Amino acid sequence: MNLSVAAYVFLGVAAIPFIYYLLVLYSSWRFFPRTLTRNAFTPPVSVLKPIRGIDPEAYTNFASFCRQDYPEYEILFCVDGADDPVIPILEKLIRDFPERRIRVFFGSGSDAVNDKVAKLGRLVREAQNEILVMGDSDVRVRSDYLRTVVAPLGDPKVGATTCFYMPAHAQTFAESLQSIGMISDFYAGLLVGWQLEGVKFALGPTIATSRSRLAEFGGLQVIENQPGDDLLMGRLIAEHGHEVQLLPYTVMKLAGCQSIKELLAKRMRWMVVMRHMRRWGHLGLVFTQGLPWSLAAIAVCSLPGVSLAYAGAYLGLRIAMSWSIGARGLKQPDLWKEMLWIPVWDAFAFFIWVASFFRKTVRWRDGQYYIRDGLLLAVPSNSVGK
To answer: CB 3.0-4.6 Å disulfide test: which of 160, 251, 304, 313 passes with 209?
Structure first.
């Protein structure tokens, strides 16, 4: 069977994702052997926790921050009001850890759309220390956490640190799909970004920085009406000439996705935000989609050898990069069980990527929002959004 020139060109284009996969392998292989410094720099720290509602296993999550092997730190919480259902949990935390300085504040003092960032802004103003560690309320950490994320800030060149996170449980199909998606897709992209241009982002579960670094770009009020606040915080710190370090360290995130519907909504929101924040990067994701390109190549050229080569390259490289990141790098146990779902995730992710080009709004918290000029704008209640 002779192939046309167009078929050869198409087969070449269809192989581009394999080059990306090789770059992921190279990047992950270089990234994870790095060692962590934990004891060189231990200044007083303020841990900031904006809260809305009650997350799964909330007390255990909060208590993990009270058991830090760290000389001096305070923990600040910001909740909506005195009747917030999380208040009894915080009161128990204060009783159980009298040796810790724990303070609770009510309300952000702002009507910003991004309530999380507004609450963080309030906590920054209330914090007593220069070094700040911010994180989501559903995060659980080990006792070496503060030493790990704060130590690199002792280098004047480092403006912030951030780290990986993994769902604490994989009890449902949606949680297993989310886990393998983070390892094989989301973190793969982050590591390639680190390799090509350095770290110009931060991840919401952990951002360690300082008052001075935040003040340089105008403080958190600058981004309190924008989506992707964690990415923006890292980007702004990097744009002011400081290094943002992604650490080879993992924390647990408890509020996972219990259903496919929830996972779909979360992934769609992220994809739409990325389409607005990094338009060309979002469009370029087409060349990281190995599954549809491989299937298209097999359809175009039905030769058994070609079909076997594309199918084998796709599966082999996807498994190799997932193992390199998840098992070798992040030390995730029993990862091989979740590797079975890689093609399912890739089909799921491709569908969402395509759909994101036609989505006009994002659903966030309890509302629908447009993104206009980088700002979140509430959709009027009488409007119909897609």
So the answer is: 160
The model's pTM: 0.90
* Per-residue pLDDT at 314: 97
Q: How far apart (Å, rounded) are the C-alpha atoms in residues 152 and 158?
A: 7
Task: Point out the residues of the chain with pLDDT beneath 70.
Answer: 1-2, 38, 255-256, 364-367, 380-386
Q: Residue 291 falls within a domain, yes or no?
A: yes
Exposed e or buried b per residue across 144-169, where buried means at least 16 C-beta atoms within 10 angstroms of its C-beta: ebbbbbbbbbeeeebbbbbbbbbbbb
Domain count of the fold of the chain: 1
> What is the reported pLDDT for 386?
46
Is the residue at 311 inside a domain?
A: yes
Asked if residue 47 is part of any domain, the answer here is no
Nearest to 287 by CA among 9, 19, 16: 16
Query: Tens digit of pLDDT for each residue in 165-178?
Result: 998 877 788 888 99
Residue 13 lies in a domain: yes
- Angle between helical axes of 342-356 and 173-181 (0-180°, round to 10): 80
d(CA 200, CA 197): 8
115 Cβ neighbours under 8 A, 6+ residues apart: 50, 52, 108, 365
- Left (φ > 0), alpha (ψ -120 to 50) or beta: where does 331 sit? left
